[in-house]
Amino acid sequence: MTIAMLGEGSEFVVERVCLCRETGRRLSDMGFTNGARGLIVRRGFFGGPIQVRLGDCDLMIRVSEAAGVDVIPVDGTVMQPRGPFGRFWRGGRGGHGLGQGGHGGRGGDHGRGAHGRGAHGRRRNDEA
Amino acid sequence: MDGAPTDGGGTMKRDDYAPASSSPGPRAITAALAGNPNAGKTTIFNALTGAHHKVGNYPGVTVEKREGSRVRNGRSYGFIDLPGIYSLTAYSLDEVVTRDFLLDHQPDVIVNVMDSTNLSRHLYLCLQFQELGIPVVGVLNMSDEAEAKGIRIDARALEDVLGIPMVKTVGPKNDGVEGILDAVDRVVDSGGGAPGKSVRYGDEIEDRLAPLEAALASDAAFAARFPSRWMAVKLLEKDGHAFEKLAGHADGTRIAALAGESSSWIDGHFGKDSEIVVSEQRYGYIRGAVKEAVKVERKPDFSLTEAIDKVVMNRFLALPIFIGVLWSVFQITFALGEHPMAWLEGMFGWLGGAVSAVLPEGLLRSLLVDGVIGGVGGVFSFVPLIVILFFLLSVLEDVGYMSRAAFATDKILHTFGLHGQSVFPMMLGFGCSVPAIMAARTLKSPRDRIVTILVIPFMSCGAKLPVHVLFAAAFFPRNAANMVMLVYAIGVVLALGSAWLLKRTVLRGEATPFVMELPPYRAPTASGLAWHVWEKTKHYVQKAGTVILASSVLIWAITTFPAYEPSAAELQAARAGFLADRPGATEEEISSRLETVVAERALGHSAAGTIGKFIEPAFRPLGFDWKLGVATVTGFAAKEVVVSTLGVLYSVGTEESEESEGLREALRGDPNWTPLLAFAMMVFTLVIPPCFAALATIRAELGWKWLGFAFAFMTTLGWVLGAAIFQIGSLAGLA
Fold it and tell me: Less CB within 10 Å around the terminal CB: N or C of chain B?
């Protein structure tokens, strides 16, 4: 599972950055390191950049870069974005069959403000 | 903002920065101010130094270097503001400049400005500074914002854990700024010394670092220049620059081999790149420290930034809002700038008149009035516009909107090989290429910056507008506005297309990562804005002013010499010819006509006329005659000069503008001119190299090589497009 596959409002824990050289290094310098928790705040129009919140810091990354960050979804249903523009959202690594994201790991962090959206945010389920 | 080194091109010596050491009292201190972008470094720098600073460049590169000084309690402090960076890798120019500066000049102390609301990421850089072995003072800036967010930082605890003195500040209010100097004093007076603590990377990595450190320390001269711990970490990170430096070590080859083995072992052991492993371990260490010293009590439910971003970064609204912001910037700039611009024009007009009244008619008067005052006045009258434009853009930048604009436009621009951050420089290009090219400095990747600068001239600047309006109104009277819009659109398409082409040919390479911070919206500070506007305006005036002065004099010279003196017989013939056309003409009309005829012949006779006639064969495929050749040459002074040159050449007077019906009539009356030729000329003017001032700015930013490339590329493209339009149009029977 990569960041590119997650929809708005999804939370994740970074597993590893699979990009090499400058891009991989930049991402890890900015905090995409093993164990870091994050949230997809929003995704740009027509596959534009993704706004990711890592700790207290908001960052923008391109879908192609997001597709190189392996993550473990934390909470709720990880979804394939749907709707009229959904097909433009897919990351570089496909984006199929994403219904199985982990339901476990409902950590205590969720009551805490910035991440609090996770509990009752705008998450859309993949059940549709 | 010179591209050339401002330190006389020589290597900077530490003494260049050190305050006068001969003064009595405590030892003078040199402090480097460093930190991440958006940490409020500029505000702290201004608070520390007051108005005492100067701006230059680091030798050989266009990275701004600001220096300031301060005297307190008899001690003098010299501050060097280093570029905002996230890490000390060797990937970006800013990072290389920072680390080279710190290694080469070994300041007494590094003052690391950090954003308290986002401490982990800022400590990441702080700990890298610590590894350099230079004493560090940590500035926990924006501590009020952190408090408001419920982030309680125990500065003392953090100091104990990391071994780095910490000072809390609120930059815009000057709170805690004196505390920075106190901490600097303490660190320096205690002998600076090597900090006792540094990051621990875990046993596996420490076991690899130890032999490397020992081997590096074996060459004392090398170790004095490059701290062994830092160097060992860099080697494990496979840092190319660090390996290059090993050439200066007595045992360099063996160390390189050992470093290679060690990093390969780490790659294999951890199953990921050693660079990333080191970075993860460093973050792990920081997480531990933050756990000890930082308590998050509560987080507010409402965030203004988030509320604004819901609209500004909305998937469907982001782009329209960006276009609206841009449109407003231009509207406000021109609405507010109109009057001061008219006053300045009036002032230069008055000055020209005054000089004319004082000096006798002749070459000197012509040089001063037409060459110097006319040319330089033209540029200076743009200053109000530049001030307002830079002010508004600085507000957008300081508020935090620029990164939102990059978010909105990156997808489109990236498709063509550009970067989201290219958008503002390119849009500025619609106003004037000079500040636009300078604004491309915000792009950190050299390739992105080069490609952006090379395509900026295709964004039709304000000075090209009169040319487009003249031809559109003369030959497409019913569709004039549409034709002008079409030319602008062609410019945008050419900019994007050229970027696409350049990124696939001469500027090919790995895509630059688009990892941008999205800072919260913040109110800009008056001192920061004043500083931005002053610096940028000063550079515009210096750069454009000097080049324009030189080019104005040059253009004046080639249009004046060799001098033309009409003979009495020629004048008589011209008078007779005019009277035959207009039998009832008054004496005033006759003399005005004669003046115009003389101007036309003088221009034909001049060096510019000769050049125009010489290059005419090259212009023939475009359907151009020598008059357009002359106008093209004079257009290098400033593009709007094309119109006044054609005014002279078509004998309609020396004071022609795009609005005057006389020149339009004259062009329509010339059998050579067709709507097709006019369109070819509009596109040609759009595409060929920009004015001298813009070319000089390209040289300053990118050097002669890229200037040569840009000139050749634009000339070729302009010629090919002009010829294609004319030839294909002629074949299609449009002529």
Answer: C
